[in-house]
Every structure is written in C-alpha cells, then in structure tokens.
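[Discussion] Sanity-checking designs against the backbone

I'm trying to build intuition for which residues belong where. Below is a structure token string of 347 positions. I'd appreciate it if someone posts a full sequence so I can compare it with mine line by line.
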C-alpha cells in the first residue's frame, strides 16, 4: 500500500507527540506540535575585592560607540558603520542552563545599567530546584531581556536520530512559545560542538535563524575572522558543503572556563574579562565598522565557588566596567542577516 505524503507526515507527528507526552507530559500536547508543524516551511583598571563590595578604578571613561546601518539602494547590506566614535565597543552577554541566580542576582545588576542579555532556556529544567520558573522567564521577557532556546532536555545533539533532533530542537521552540515567549529565533547547542555536523545544523535551520555554537574570543558579523578564510556567512558553499563559519556557528567566550581555570581568583579573572571585551576594538577601528563582537557566556551568579559559577562581586564589577568604559551591550536577538551579502548585522 502506498501512503500519501500527508499520511506519512501525520504519522511522524503522532510519534513525535507521543514521545513528548511520555517523556515530558507537562510541556505541550500533540495538538500543539501538529499545529506548529503546519507553520514551518588594554585598559589600565584595577579591581579591588573587599568583604563588602567590589570597586573599580578606571583611568578614563570612553563614550558609547554609536552605530548606524549602511544602506545600499535603500536596503541593508549587512554592514554597521561606526559614524560618531573611534571606539567600536560592542559586547553580547549570554546566560545558559536556566539558573535561578540569573533572575535573583544577575538581573538586578543588569538593570542598574539598562543592559539586555540573552537567556537560553532548557525547557525540562524550568521549575526545578535552583532553576528559573516560567514566571521568572516571562518577567525577564517583559523587562526587555532576550529569551532563546537551549533544547528540551539538554541533550548532546551529535548522537540523536532525525526525529529526536526535531523533538529536541523544534520542540523547544514550541515549548517556549506555549509558555508565552514570543519569537525565539536562536538555538544554543549543548557543549557548543555541532558546527561541523550537517544533520544538526540543517535541523536547527528549520526552526531558527541563528545558533550559538562554538568558542572563540570574538564572533564576526562577516564570518571573516576565523581560520576558514571565509568572506561571508553563507551556511553552505557552492558545492553544498557546510561552511566552517556561518550564522549557525556564533562563537562565544565561556566565563566559567576562567572561573574554573583561575580557581575564582577574581583579580585575575577580571583582567581576562577586560582583555576579552576589548578584543574587538582594534579590529573594528581598523575596518571602520563593527564586525568583531566579543560574547561572554555566564551560568550561575553566586559565591558558591562552583566551577559553573561566577562570584557576585566580580559580575557586578564587570558590568560596571562595561558601563564606565562606554561599551554598548546588545542582546543576540539584535542580529540580522542579509540574504544578498550573506553578512550578519546589528539591527
């Protein structure tokens, strides 16, 4: 018997829905999945840590770099031109693993400076002990923070079947939408190691416009600052081969790698942070536009000295440094992509 395309498609989503029901019965229903499926087509600074607070003494204060998009025939060409300042200082902050301290501790510090960060949510973590709940997450969104996806179960994507990838990647987007999160468009890959896996990248690209995946001192809006010798961010080359750098391989610096490596020595880690956020300035000034953007990734913000935690005073000092030294902090959701130039840009 020959089955129609729609019958096969329906059978797939029944299986997908049932797997979601048995694994995660409180997240969403088969009806939700099926309905959604129809829609898819160096500065001299000193940090002083005391028993009370962290103080920063900075030798100078820089103006915030103001940028505007260059237009070609009235359309964006993917370039951001630094028109008013020689200091092209842009940084992105991310938070992963749905940790409660991101809401109770990090957010009030971000709020002091009006900073908006990107929070990547693992749906099955929500509501667990020491994790964010849905009220926290919706409040973050209402306050202008960027809410994005980090999967259903925090699974290693490299070893999943095609249907499991759809569930983990596409299902997490539906999960967020079901709980009131609007337009999640960025997926963060667990371990940041799927950039050379075509099956995973192809699945992510079905549901999202971008992926946070990989590690580097800077990400490049033109995907032109890595060892791949690329000059744009096209996902596949002319032969259909997955590109080494593209909008699904946005790379970040892990703050927790410093926390663990330097055993929570805040003085040393602070200097690493300063080096990191300033790493793109020379590149951008030389090119006359914002191309290189450091991305700093955090998880827990507390004083537990856990390998995945950043000390509270240190985090406060880092945010203060960004403010006092004229950095423009943008959420990852500000990224755009120009189909004609194959460049990313800041909207």
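Best answer:
Here's mine. Compare freely.
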């Amino acid at each position: 018997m020959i089955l129609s395309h729609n019958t096969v498609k329906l059978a797939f989503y029944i299986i997908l829905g049932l797997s979601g029901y048995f694994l995660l019965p409180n997240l969403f229903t088969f009806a939700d999945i099926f309905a959604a499926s129809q829609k898819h087509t160096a500065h001299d600074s000193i940090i002083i840590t005391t028993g009370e607070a962290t103080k920063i003494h900075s030798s100078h204060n820089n103006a915030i770099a103001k940028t505007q998009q260059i237009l070609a025939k009235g359309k964006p060409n993917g370039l951001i031109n630094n028109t008013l300042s020689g200091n092209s200082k842009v940084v992105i902050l991310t938070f992963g693993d749905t940790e409660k301290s991101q809401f109770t501790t990090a957010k009030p510090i971000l709020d002091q400076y009006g900073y908006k960060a990107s929070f990547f949510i693992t749906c099955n973590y929500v509501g667990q002990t020491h994790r964010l709940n849905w009220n926290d997450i919706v409040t973050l969104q209402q306050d202008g923070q960027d809410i994005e996806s980090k999967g259903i179960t925090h699974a290693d994507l490299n070893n999943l079947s095609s249907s499991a990838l759809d569930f983990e990647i596409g299902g997490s987007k539906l999960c967020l939408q079901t709980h009131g999160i609007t337009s999640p468009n960025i997926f963060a890959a667990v371990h940041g190691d799927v950039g050379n896996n075509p099956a995973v990248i192809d699945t992510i690209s079905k549901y999202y416009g971008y992926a946070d995946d990989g590690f580097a001192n800077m990400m490049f809006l033109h995907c032109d600052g890595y060892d791949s010798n690329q000059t744009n961010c096209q996902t596949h080359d002319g032969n259909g081969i997955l590109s080494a750098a593209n909008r699904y391989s946005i790379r970040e610096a892990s703050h927790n790698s410093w926390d663990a490596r330097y055993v929570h020595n805040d003085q040393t880690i602070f200097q690493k942070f300063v080096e990191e956020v300033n790493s793109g300035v020379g590149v951008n000034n030389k090119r006359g536009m914002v191309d290189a953007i450091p991305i700093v990734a955090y998880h827990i913000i507390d004083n537990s000295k856990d390998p995945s935690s950043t000390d509270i005073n240190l985090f406060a000092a880092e945010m203060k440094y960004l403010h006092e030294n004229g950095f423009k902090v943008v959420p990852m959701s500000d990224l755009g992509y120009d189909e004609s130039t194959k460049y990313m840009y800041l909207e």
